[in-house]
């Protein structure tokens, strides 16, 4: 048996066996095991049974049918997907850029706030010196930020949706000029607090003081007491000043920098030489022996007033030791803040600085914008007020951008020619009711002859009007209608257009009309052929029976036609 198995495993031996003998050897026996070795079974696998293949094909067909059925039901909306709802997509947060130093962490003041109740706020904070940008006409403004956070350099690029500016954009004392960034933000269409227009105008203190002069001229010295100030474009004009001591301010600076107290004329000339070296402008104002300084700040609709008294004895109250105290907000102080908040298109955040002298008078000396420093014991409250103001502005911006502007309602001109006045039109617009009819004079080359209104409300008569007899016989073939509705065939039969005369012009065109001067001359002419109305009336006075009648009447008709021809020739000869 083992020998037979070894021989069967030999491929050459198996190949020489008859086909029937090999099938007999491979036929299974119920009583004994198969003589074929497992190796032969691996080399010659059993062919699949027809039943298995048919069942496999049936299962594949059923799976395809079920898949097609599910696809059809899904397309028809029969499958309920409510069991697995799609999670809502969170809206993209709005990016707020805060330009301020790192001492104030503005992100915590905007934490939990949403724009329009649906957009989160992502706060990016940096100083002017840490920013760079590129602005595009349609692409907005791309800001590059490089900041140091806990000793690590952080580089980011983003497109801000709103900017809060809490730093000065220009300072001559520190040699910082970031006005180009302000221009870039304006170029990119970025909205800010305060507005970019006002921030750019605040880059020059004399320019801002000129706006205070306008308010002073409007309200008067009693309501708006402005300090007397002199402006010098350069050192060449700094020859003398009427009173001493004075305070000279060089260029554009902040926090008391660039301010010098000058006691006499010699010091003033020395100060002029310093201005020449600085190559800038200067201002001078009389020195006020102050008792305390006053500061009125306005953040949105919130007002606060502070009084600052110097303790160190320095004439600059903001230098050295000083005592700060909040005072009551009076109507006078509120007027100052409101008047200054209207300059440059509106200031959302501003502060007015004044000096209260020892003689009891107040002098307004300066106004500050959103870069003003926050003072007093309510700093946290003021920062929260600024955050609420920014969120309110951003919400207004989103609401304005989301609302579709109503299109302008166009005016529609409808022309309704009236029955008796074909050249009078009625104008109707969508925004108002119908207007009164207006008689418009059309061009003489593009319209039929103009009709004239007869007095006492009678029907208007055209130059080709019919006689009363023909008007009473509507069925007469010689009845001539108005020029706009007459038929050329009927007009020719009626004798209006003689055979020798040119055909009537096409619709929309009319023969030239005589000028008013010529008409008056023709009316003054006693000749019957030159009297238009008389000749035409005589022409149409021929009765219907005469049109059909005897030779005498035919001669009269011919004579009438000749007269009509002459009348037309006289009318249009010029």
From TrEMBL:
GO BP: any one term: synaptic vesicle clustering
Main localization (coarse): cytoplasm
Entry protein name: Synapsin III
Pfam family, one: Synapsin
Record's compositionally biased regions (Polar residues): 517-550
Bias type Low complexity, positions: 51-60, 448-482, 506-516
Region (Disordered): 20-60, 72-91, 427-561
PANTHER family: SYNAPSIN, SYNAPSIN III
InterPro entries found in the cross-reference section: ATP_grasp_subdomain_1 (IPR013815), PreATP-grasp_dom_sf (IPR016185), Synapsin (IPR001359), Synapsin_ATP-bd_dom (IPR020898), Synapsin_CS (IPR019735), Synapsin_P_site (IPR019736), Synapsin_pre-ATP-grasp_dom (IPR020897)
Compartments reported by the entry: Cytoplasmic vesicle, Secretory vesicle, Synaptic vesicle
Keyword Phosphoprotein (UniProt): yes
Domain Synapsin pre-ATP-grasp: from-to ranges: 92-190
Molecular function as annotated in GO: ATP binding
PROSITE patterns attached to this UniProt entry: SYNAPSIN_1, SYNAPSIN_2
The entry's keywords: Cytoplasmic vesicle, Phosphoprotein, Synapse
Sequence similarity: Belongs to the synapsin family.
Synapsin ATP-binding domain mapped to chain residues: 194-396
Any one of the GO CC terms: glutamatergic synapse
Record carries keyword Hydrolase: no
